[in-house]
Amino acid sequence: MAFAMLDAPRAARALLTASAVRERSAKMLELGIDGRLTAFTVVMDRLPAAADLVVEVIRANYPDLVIPFHARWRHFVAGGRDLGAELLARIADPTERGRTAFDLAIVSVLLDAGAGMAWRYRDAATGAELSKSEGLAVASLRMFEAGAFAADGVSPRADAARLAAITAADIAAGFQVGPENPLVGLEGRAALLARLGAVAANAPAVFGNRDTPRPGGLFDHLA
Length: 223
Fold this sequence. Notes:
It contains twelve helices and four strands. The protein is mostly helical.
């Protein structure tokens, strides 16, 4: 599929197809076989053993083979606790709970990109040490919980005005980034949140019809 030959909307839709996934996966496999990946080595002779290991892990964790969907909400589970569910349970009003869930999920997903091999997040409340998507999810949840994305600086919500002003330094502080704990892409993550804030602020009919503009306003729009 020649994505470069498509206009932007058609190219975006094309990326959601199974054929696009197969095409990109094939390219990654080629790079791996050629030894051009920095974090992985592909040895095709080990594929059967890898498949056996995957089956073993699945059966150990889900003996009934009822496997839950992969979702951002599952990344909020740490130290045996469902941190996302705990946060939402503290909000009595169901519509505000819905807005908060949208705020958290949207912001957290946009902060989830490759973290690099060295970065770790240490969650004081659960004692868990996490990396990659799990670490990024819990780090973003803790920032959210502390009001880092809220206009008032304390509420568990994401406001367009605050998102538009977010900086790489803000994210670095929340994600425990330092010389011994580097995280790649800080500037890009901040830019994504700033763009989200600008989009929400500029579309109050969608994002602010029941509250000041926020990503969670999409909940009201859809409801």
